Amino acid sequence: MPGIDAKADNAERRRLKLTAFLKAEAADKGFDLCRVTRPDAIPHAPARLKDFLDEGFHGTMEWLADTAERRSDPRTLWSEVRSVVMFAMNYGPDEDPRGILEQADRGAISVYAQNRDYHDIIKGKLKEVATRFAARAGEDVKVFVDTAPVMEKPLAEKAGLGWQGKHTNLVSREYGSWLFLGSLFTTAELDLDLPERDHCGSCHACLDACPTDAFPAPYRIDARRCISYLTIEHKGPIDRDLRPLIGNRIYGCDDCLAACPWNKFAQTASEMKLKAREDLKEPKLEALLSLDDPGFRSLFSGSPVKRIGRDRFVRNVLIAAGNSGDQTLVPVVMARIGDTSPVVRAMAVWALSRLVAPAALAQIAEQCEPETDDEVLNEWQMAGVSRCMS
Fold first, then answer.
1. Of 38, 80, 266, 75, whose CA–CA distance to 173 is shortest?
2. Residues that are catalytic
3. Angle between the 309-324 and 342-355 helix axes, to the nearest 10 degrees?
4. Angle at 209 between CA 204 and CA 212, to 5 degrees
5. Dihedral of the CA atoms 277, 318, 232, 290 (nearest 10)?
6. Sign, CA torsion 280/285/287/289
7. pTM over the 0.90 mark
8. Helix (H) or strand (E) holding 226
């Protein structure tokens, strides 16, 4: 009927205009990609998440299990959503980040954390886009960046931003593995983009690059063996068998991302706030080991590193020191034996056990205050030194 056809035409024109407006706003605010998908586009993702949780691959990240149902479908998070808009911002480095792994006296901080917290940057820009879009469309919107229970990578794949590679991260033909993601949920009906297909083929470079064999199979990751999880999410002592494999990675790990051949098409980040700070590119372990809490907070002000706290961070640096073989670090590592944090003291013992001879370690133990923490005592015992409880 003519009236029905005209109404459909008007709805189609509105969808196209609103989608074009939204994508233009996204580009204006510095987003490199902006694509649209349906809220029901990822029906198989919940089952994959359940398998991941059932295997215990999430480690101590209990919040993943607690929010599993809410992650299963965007409509569970917001029942009125009609379109899901996925945004991506390139944070590609200007050189291969694995170069620092050869510098044992330096600490390797993941590329994404070498400047301001991307959550703050992207969420701020998303809110600007959302405000202008809501005013133009007269529709409700919600924005999410990583911390909300949104399955961003599967949605990004369905929106056509890229595909989830064998390392489980998003890969783009234009930007490689270096993309930050954010999402906008809206009640508006928008023009949909086509999903991206998997272009990994027979390549398994990312799997081969993992120092700790954290991939039990392609497209599956065991976070309990992942250096990013161990150095960021894991709060206690790190498994002794994994410590030597961590090398000098003190916050996160870029190995699987950096190994992706699609990175040859990636551009370096255009957003200045995402470019690495010079003082965080190749920080010296000696200086980082000397950080007290105020010093840590000052150095990492505005950085995502700040959220793990000084004690967990220094734990990571001590593991790097123990792996360095650098005898000049012995004095500053010794200073951490008397630290107020048990996890720091424990890793200081381990690091010293790797840097000094057993006889020297026994002499150091004799000069220490009596130890009461079980984890620290265990490290002394594993190092071959008997310590009595006070």
1. 266
2. 146
3. 10
4. 120
5. -50
6. positive
7. yes
8. none
Rounded CA-CA distance 348/338 in Å is 9
Here the tokens at position 281 are 């590119």
Place of tokens 């605010």: 29
The Cα–Cα gap between 249 and 108 comes to: 5
Residues 262 and 256: beta-carbon distance below 8 Å: no
Closest CA to 42 of 77, 70, 72: 72
Nearest in space to 152 (alpha carbons), one of 33, 21, 320, 318: 33
> Residue 97 and residue 109: Cα distance in Å, rounded?
9
Digit-coded pLDDT (tens) for 61-101: 998 888 888 887 899 889 999 999 999 999 999 899 999 99
Beta bridge partners of 183: 86, 144
pLDDT in tens, 192-236: 999 999 999 999 999 999 999 999 999 999 999 999 999 999 998
CB 109 within 8 A of CB 280: yes
Rounded Cα gap, residues 7 and 356, in angstroms: 80
**What integer pLDDT is reported at residue 181 of this predicted model?**
96
Domain ranges of the chain: 2-94+115-186, 284-390
pLDDT digits (tens, 9 = 90+) for 234-259: 998 999 999 999 999 999 999 999 99
Structure tokens at 135: 């005013």
